[in-house]
Amino acid sequence: ITVQALVLASPAQGYGRASAEVREAKYNDRVNTVARLGIEGMAAARSSALCAAGASSDVIATVQENMRLVTVGGYRQAAYLLSHGDIRQHLARNRVPTVVVCGALDSVTPPQGAQALAAEFGYPFVEIPDVAHALYVEQPAAFCGVLRHWVPLLCQPNMSSQASRHALRRH
Fold first, then answer.
1. Residues in Cβ contact with 8 at an 8 Å cutoff, skipping those fewer than 6 apart
2. Per-residue pLDDT tens for 109-142?
3. Euclidean distance between CA atoms 61 and 33, whole angstroms
4. For 39-48, 54-63, 162-171, which range has the lowest pLDDT when averaged over its residues?
5. Which residues pair with 99 in a beta bridge?
6. pLDDT at 76 > cutoff 90
7. pLDDT at res. 171
8. What angle do CA 122, 115, 109 make, to 5 degrees?
9. What DSSP letter does each residue of 90-138 carry, written as one string?
10. How far apart are alpha carbons 132 and 154 in whole angstroms?
11. Which residues pair with 73 in a beta bridge?
């Protein structure tokens, strides 16, 4: 499989640049939470925090249902990657056209951080209004609209060059 383009939706940037103490604290907090609550309890406790205030009960239930599909082992791996990783290290090697998308009300991966990440690497940034971290669940039509707009642009020939990426920023 060859990746032709990348869409980063609500990108977690990781704590890889933080001190060892901060990294371990972030990891332990997540692991201890799931150990204390279990996957079911974590999904119940955290699902509404991934949605904008006023999200419908159906949206929150969908987020919670998806969170319940996580395994403890998978969650521990994700927690380790988030606590010790740095997305910038990966993006520094990225050679495919990329767009960064974030919900305007995202408190988990705030739009300011996502926009700064996009600017640092010369990627276009799209902010979807009135949604939070679970933007593709809260506003699936808006998220799909972003994909329908950006994926064809990103997959045009020669879009991997820096000049082409800057041309995309005008869209």
1. 98, 99, 100, 101, 114, 117, 123
2. 999 999 999 999 999 999 999 999 999 999 999 9
3. 20
4. 162-171
5. 7
6. yes
7. 55
8. 135
9. HHTT--S-EEEEEETT-SSS-HHHHHHHHHHHT--EEEETT--TTHHHH
10. 24
11. none
Cα-to-chain-centroid distance, residue 55: 19
Q: Across the strands, what pairs with 128? A: 103
Question: Whole-prediction pTM value?
Answer: 0.89
Cα 57 to Cα 138: distance, rounded to the nearest angstrom = 11
Distances (CA, A) of 95 to 100, 110, 129, 158: 15, 25, 29, 11
What is the C-alpha separation between 10 and 83, in angstroms, rounded? 16
Return the pLDDT at 154: 87
Residues 51, 28: Cα–Cα separation, whole Å: 24
